[in-house]
Amino acid sequence: MPLLQIAPAESWGDAVRGSISEALALLLEGIPRVLAFALIALAGWLTLNLVAKLVDRLLETVQFDAFADRAGVSGFVYRTGIDADASTFVAELARWFIRLIALVAAFDALGIPAVSEVLREFLRWLPELLVAIVVLVLTGLAATAVAELVRGATAQGGLDNPELLARVGSTAVWLFGVVIAVN
User: In sequence order, which residues have a C-beta less than 8 Å from that of residue 148 and are 6 or more positions away?
Assistant: First the structure.
């Protein structure tokens, strides 16, 4: 934004008129930016509901909820206090992703680069979050498999407390998976 060029005023009336003129010019210059911000934000909000429904239907079609149940992800989602199945949870994540993209574009149109850059950094971090979630899903599958394997092997071997050993094996796999996901 260019610096205002204020001409020296010869009277108080000239000073007031000049100030009002400059303020009005700044206001009128900002209206297109505010309108662009509002239109982009509105388009993003309208789009996100459509995309979230499509993601939810796609995940239900490929039976993502059954896979998430086997992996233990559904239980994890439920224990976090979210009252939704795994596919609805992923659809909600998609909804928030689109919100962030719309906000980045809207703040760019408004001319506030600091806010846009913070949101961009967050968006750059999201793929890492997605990989961590995939690692945790695979960890859930591996932990369940290890627990069943240890439980079966210890029961066949006649060892005491196969349930405890299965839990120890499952916990070890979870700890390893969480360390990988965090990295």
Answer: 166
Going residue by residue through the chain (183 aa), what tens digit of pLDDT does each one get? 455 565 566 777 777 777 788 878 777 888 888 898 899 989 988 888 888 888 888 888 888 878 777 776 677 667 667 777 777 878 888 888 888 888 888 888 888 888 888 888 888 888 888 788 888 878 888 898 899 999 988 888 888 888 888 899 999 999 999 999 888
Closest CA to 61 of 82, 87, 90, 83: 87
User: Is 70 in the same domain as 145?
Assistant: no
Structural domain count of the chain: 2
Q: Give the predicted TM-score (pTM) of the model.
A: 0.57
102 and 21, same domain (yes or no): yes
* Shared domain check, 104 and 130: no
